[in-house]
Write a structure and sequence with these properties.
This protein is mostly helical. The protein is 70% helix and 0% strand. Helix 1 runs parallel beside helix 3.
Length: 159
């Protein structure tokens, strides 16, 4: 059973390393301004996150089989011999480090995406303001040209 827990932790470590590589790839594509390829990488990241969540649920079930009252892997370390406990502790530490790196990279990606969004929105607002009529009385409520007040004319009527 302990071997299965170790294998699960190894798979999670590899998945987190892959996650970090995907996040770096997403960042590079954000800087290259390739939105279609960013969405493809984002879909891969979401699928990998789903798989990691499934691995975590599986790990919880394995831990509960070893010690029914245990909630986490760290809760069962006292039940293991020293060598195995040390190996599992190292796997947990590597997993935690990889998660921290992924979190930092995800934060960078989010900041870059928001900066690009703000830049695009600002550009669109600017373009919209440039094509919008300067006079607010040009169009009426019915989307037709408004008829202005003709006070300056001496004569009004048809010929």
């Amino acid at each position: 059973m302990i071997r299965l827990i170790e294998e699960n932790l190894v798979r999670q470590n590899k998945a987190m390393l892959l996650m970090f590589l995907l996040l770096e790839e997403e960042f590079s594509r954000l800087t290259q301004l390739k939105p279609q390829s960013v969405s493809r990488v984002e879909l891969s990241i979401q699928e990998l996150m789903r798989q990691i969540a499934a691995e975590r649920l599986s790990l919880r079930r394995l831990v509960a089989r070893v010690v029914p009252t245990a909630q986490r892997v760290r809760d069962i370390l006292s039940e293991l011999d020293e060598d195995r406990a040390e190996a599992v502790s190292q796997l947990l530490q590597r997993l935690d480090d990889a998660e921290q790196k992924c979190g930092v990279q995800a934060s960078k990606n989010q900041q870059m995406a928001m900066a690009l969004f703000d830049q695009s929105k600002g550009l669109l607002d600017f373009m919209h303001n440039q094509i919008k009529p300067k006079s607010t009385t040009t169009y009426g409520r019915t989307a037709r040209y408004a008829k202005g007040v003709n006070d300056a004319r001496l004569l009004s009527g048809r010929l």
